[in-house]
Structures
1.
Amino acid sequence: MGDEDWEAEIIKPHMSSYVPVFEKDRYSSGANGDTFNRTPASSSEMDDGPSRRDHFMRSGFASGRSMGNRDAGESNKRENTSTVGGFGVGKSFGSRGFSNNKFEEGDSSGFWRESNNDCEDNQTRSRGFSKRGGYQDGNDSEASGSSRRGGRSSFRGCHGGFGLGSPNSEYEQDEGTQRTGGLFGSRRPALSGTGNGDTYQSRSGSGSGRGGYKGLNEEVVTGSRKNSWKSDAEGGESGDTQGPKVTYIPPPPPEDEDSIFAHYQTGINFDKYDTILVEVSGHDAPPAILTFEEANLCQTLNNNIAKAGYTKLTPVQKYSIPIILAGRDLMACAQTGSGKTAAFLLPILAHLMRVGITASRFKELQEPECIIVAPTRELINQIYLEARKFSFGTCVRAVVIYGGTQLGHSIRQIVQGCNILCATPGRLMDIIGKEKIGLKQVKYLVLDEADRMLDMGFGPEMKKLISCPGMPSKEQRQTLMFSATFPEEIQRLAGEFLKSNYLFVAVGQVGGACRDVQQTILQVGQYSKREKLVEILQNIGDERTMVFVETKKKADFIATFLCQEKISTTSIHGDREQREREQALGDFRCGKCPVLVATSVAARGLDIENVQHVINFDLPSTIDEYVHRIGRTGRCGNTGRAISFFDPESDSHLAQPLVKVLSDAQQDVPAWLEEIAFSTYVPGFSGNARGNVFASVDTRKNYQGKSTLNTAGFSSSQAPSPVDDESWD
Ligand SMILES: Nc1ncnc2c1ncn2[C@@H]1O[C@H](COP(=O)(O)OP(=O)(O)OP(=O)(O)O)[C@@H](O)[C@H]1O
């Protein structure tokens, strides 16, 4: 992870043999305006009173470790299926695959070592269009990608060139350029599933630069114009900035009731939720409710809840629903997969149904009563579908907008009426900047994955959002924050968004891993990882598995490698076009591709049925991210397994927090891991406070009266650096 100059690899003579001749010619020719050079990328608040009433509902927690064990020796080898929709195994990898290009273990070039290209995105976020373009890693990746991907059309570089679509602010028209590509429309790997007739072949190679990198700036507006809430948006996807057009219009959501209410079964450990310790801190917290009936929701809402298969509240719902209904601000922390989405949606909908809505499709300016933000496109879309499900048959209309899609489409959705606006930050700011929505009616501001929304990656955007003209002050709106993890420093930052008497709900160990996930840590060196991965996947058979890697390029690489190994695989990461991302997720959801290789873009919030395994091919840089990643399995009382490759060379800093997370979740802790943890002892790290790594309590208890914020509110020394920014939207 950033420890090696992989750029150097691409100039190794033997690597050039990976370049299929036609690809090489095409790219090196500079045709289509592509620049295919190999210039090395430059590596790349709460002074609240002390008397807080703490509620403790407790009993022990039974470990949910009754796993559906698989016989380790089972040779349930995956069928040699051609990858339908994922990577074009069939034609793509068939005869012209990697046959002569085995990635040699122990060969430093054997693995696709990359500089941590998070850097490039960090830079992009902070400097705008600094280095996306002709010279950037896209080229490098192209070089390495095309040179290492033997599959004939399995991974095709997309063609950038200069995105010179004419600026055009009228969404009704072709809204001009959006920042889906860098200014120069970098090329990047593309998955072209030629073997199945899917639509992955997106690279037209036109000079419009279509398909450049997907443009993190869509969600994180660059900081260069940080004093102007509007100018950011104007310089964003609005089309005022040159860049390739984004024409993708996502398919409409399902209309039939069966699809809208489709859900998976709660698992055998669902009832064990009742035994989880819950702590509520803050003054005058309303009592928890025990049943949906006690929430006193309207009949339509109750019908929808029943149709969704919900019969019993989860702990976070028992506490959050009455708190939100009482009009209180809330910061809620509950384990992954325990129903946080419904915990905020249901009371918001109940309130809107009770007081009535103001926004209507007949108004020229849409003024939503609720804005929900989440860090990734897929997650916000999932939240929207939940909002749509629970509001079914009501007058409340939810709308979703996110980057990577046609801006005009987003605006058209809004003008049809918008009460609940689900949005990723960049697209939201763009729409606000275009004055397509008014903020005066906002009663609820929800930050899902709030710790992520407030860290250095998205925090400044969120600050701009609450400073936008018309946005009600925190005293006049209700602000709700949800996550499975809440580092202390982020909790302190959150105070700026919340009324001082907000309530803090902690379900179980704050930041703790879901106990329904059986966690295994294997010591695997960098060069043995692929072999180990294949071995594990072959034993797993066709059970749905998410494989997390640290960088986008590695995601492509590993997915390609697995396809070559006849394991149907697809991938999701920030360099894929939105259409491709949605296709990949769809193929994974339906089981067409039982393996999904992902960067941390898929680590948070995604709720996919039947994900039985999570494999951390690369461990993430923080323990919180680890908790989110493994939380893609073992959801809603179901059991799951997580296997993580621990490379002492690069992961030692995680040993201590890992030991803590494992033991808190009553998992076996390998002796070797304890030894590493001991030898890398970090003074100040304690099991309870987790030092800077992990919050365990409402920080108001620890930091009453103290403020460590700098004037900007985002202390670089306090706030964690963004996790794997390359993967986030
Ligand atoms: N009371 C309930 N009864 C049955 N199913 C529920 C209930 N509440 C939520 N679920 C289901 O549990 C699954 C997980 O819920 P959700 O995605 O809201 O979890 P989460 O806590 O937000 O997870 P994460 O931390 O990963 O974002 C969803 O499929 C949801 O429909």
2.
Amino acid sequence: MWRRAASLSSSIFSSSSRRALRDRGAYSSKAMEFSSAEPFKGEGCLSKEKNLYITFVLGGPGSGKGTQCAKIVENFGYTHLSAGELLRQEIASNSEDGVMILDMIKEGKIVPSEVTVKLIQKGMESCDNGKFLIDGFPRNEENRTAFEQIIGAEPNIVLFFDCPEEEMIKRVLNRNEGRVDDNIDTIRKRLKVFAASHYPVIDYYSKKGKLYKIDAIGTEDEIFERVRPVFAACEGAQ
Ligand SMILES: Nc1ncnc2c1ncn2[C@@H]1O[C@H](COP(=O)(O)OP(=O)(O)OP(=O)(O)O)[C@@H](O)[C@H]1O
Ligand SMILES: Nc1ccn([C@H]2C[C@H](O)[C@@H](COP(=O)(O)O)O2)c(=O)n1
Ligand SMILES: [Mg+2]
């Protein structure tokens, strides 16, 4: 189990980095205050006393989370843990929870938080790199509080890819990866669940000054140029 950060009061961003980001409009005015993001020491990967930097990556289905995470990994060396992908691997491994998870995913519902957080925990513990992108999580307040309770940590920063529904539907229907939930009926259910549950999470991190809202319309490269300064500022400050 990880210890909580002893202190979350000092910013990992220098004031010049903050100014640069603000000037480039990488985040909304509501989310403009920078947060504290001091790394904390873990236990597990923890016994190695490593610093952890946790980024939650939020956005609706098809908003481009996975696509942008791949670019962040490539450019900044983070470890990508997609909650949805961990759940799909659990289905594929025929585990005890596999059938329940498959039923919930087909219905566009959120899997009980304890199941998802335990998978994320396993992913974090099996990794030498302490810089994590946790994609598609937390989907709701229950997810958020379960992570805090089980992992004993908070994210340093939170990215939110803001994308209109019609664009998300178009992208998901064109994705063609054979996912059981990439059909119009399930997409509509996922969008409903997203609309009903994401706002409290976004609002929570916005109030804590941890939220970076990214306009998710444009080419993949254009969007990455909005994401890049957030991570470049982190790197500069480490
Ligand atoms: N900026 C973009 N413009 C057009 N298509 C995009 C863009 N970004 C990603 N895509 C495509 O849209 C589809 C959905 O993207 P991606 O899988 O990254 O979304 P996601 O947010 O991870 O979705 P989910 O929550 O369903 O996993 C993919 O086929 C991807 O190639
Ligand atoms: N925190 C999460 C993340 C994902 N799921 C389930 C429900 C989603 O529709 C599905 C696919 O996730 P995606 O790959 O789109 O991020 O996985 C969940 O229950 N809880
Ligand atoms: Mg994805």
